[in-house]
């Protein structure tokens, strides 16, 4: 193995802003390989592709849904972020399939703990994987940049500013964000991830994104969105009514809750939130009648 200096910059690694690269480039999956395998449900015929933008426009096997955009060293350093996302998705998918929108069993109360810091970095990584490959439509006609600080945050070389970072839905009237992981069984493995960027400055700057995982939306801001300004909750703001860096997310049915705790290294996290599910009539569900409430029909993301 060839030794390289700590200052080495691999030209194909988007995380090379302060050097520290290895000499080998590696294939980085646009969305974590472990997540794709989870949702393919061991189907060898499963294929994945981007539906919009620049990227993988034709169906490929999960192992080929990637781009050479990170060196091996930086790719490996981000494994804990992938692990946190996989823990989150595995918990929700297992319970969603068990419940099947009322046709199955909700079961006993459960809780898990995952790293909020690693999960926040996974959301950032998903956004950067697409921004760095000029995937988004706005990037096809002009040069569009994102904050250089994003790489330091991704690699845990800097603390997140108090007004930046992850947020979750807390206003159910906000149809730009989703918190509906307990879909019908037929819908659980469809459109389970997505990424839509925040675009500013005459379409020349990306300030984060809304990232979907397991039918739950997360806002990720690389700027101060002005939460203390009354205009923050205007209808045109897609992250209006959100909670920043939540302590937990829970889903409750008839007093029984499935909860995901986020552990944060710094004690400046927000409150948690519990979403209440409406009881589903099993007889209706067995006849094919959709359960009441909002169904999963959101616009397509990449």
Characterization of this structure:
The protein is of the alpha+beta class and 302 residues long. The protein has a domain at 79-286. 22% of the residues lie in helices and 22% in strands. It has 7 helices and 11 strands. The chain has a 5-stranded antiparallel β-sheet, covered by helices on one side. Strands 3-10-9-11 form a 4-stranded mixed β-sheet. It has a two-stranded antiparallel sheet with strand order 1-2. The two termini are 37 Å apart.
Poorly predicted regions are: 293-302
Q: What is the total tally of β strands?
A: 11
Mean pLDDT: 88
Shape: globular
Task: Profile the largest sheet.
Answer: 5 strands, antiparallel
- The amount of helix comes to 10-25%
- Quaternary organization: single chain
Determine Rg (CA atoms, Å): 20 Å
Strand order of the largest sheet: 5-6-7-4-8
SSE class: alpha+beta
Could you list some keywords that capture this structure?
alpha+beta, five-stranded antiparallel β-sheet, 11 strands, 22% strand
Layout: helices, strands, pairs:
Blueprint: E1 25-29, H1 33-40, E2 66-71, H2 72-77, H3 79-99, E3 110-115, H4 116-131, H5 149-154, E4 165-169, H6 185-188, E5 193-200, E6 205-213, E7 216-221, E8 242-244, E9 248-253, E10 256-263, E11 273-276, H7 282-286
Parallel strand pairs: 3-10, 9-11
Antiparallel strand pairs: 1-2, 4-7, 4-8, 5-6, 6-7, 9-10
């Amino acid at each position: 193995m060839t030794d390289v200096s700590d200052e080495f910059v691999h030209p194909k690694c988007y995380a090379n802003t302060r050097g520290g690269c290895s000499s080998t480039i590696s294939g980085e999956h646009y969305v974590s390989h472990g997540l794709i395998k989870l949702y393919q449900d061991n189907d060898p015929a499963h294929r994945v592709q981007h539906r919009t933008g620049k990227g993988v426009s034709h169906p490929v096997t999960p192992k080929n849904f990637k781009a050479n955009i990170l060196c091996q060293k930086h790719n490996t350093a981000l494994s804990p972020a992938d692990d946190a996302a996989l823990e989150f998705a595995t918990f929700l998918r297992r319970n969603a399939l068990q419940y099947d929108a009322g046709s199955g069993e909700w079961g006993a109360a459960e809780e898990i703990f995952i790293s909020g810091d690693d999960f926040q970095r996974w959301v950032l990584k998903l956004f950067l994987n697409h921004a760095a490959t000029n995937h988004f439509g706005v990037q096809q006609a002009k040069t569009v940049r994102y904050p250089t600080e994003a790489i330091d945050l991704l690699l845990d070389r800097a603390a997140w500013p108090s007004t930046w970072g992850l947020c979750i839905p807390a206003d159910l009237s906000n149809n730009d964000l989703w918190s509906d992981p307990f879909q019908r069984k037929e819908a659980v493995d469809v459109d389970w991830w997505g990424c839509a960027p925040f675009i500013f400055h005459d379409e020349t700057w990306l300030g984060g994104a809304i990232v979907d995982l397991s039918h739950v939306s997360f806002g990720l801001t690389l700027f101060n969105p002005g939460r203390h300004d009354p205009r923050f909750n205007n209808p045109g703001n897609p992250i209006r009514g959100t909670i920043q860096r939540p302590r937990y997310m829970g889903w409750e049915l008839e007093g029984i809750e499935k909860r995901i705790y986020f552990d944060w290294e710094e004690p400046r996290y927000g409150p948690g939130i519990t979403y209440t599910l409406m009881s589903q009539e099993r007889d209706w569900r067995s006849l094919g009648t959709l359960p009441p409430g909002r169904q999963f029909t959101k616009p397509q993301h990449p």
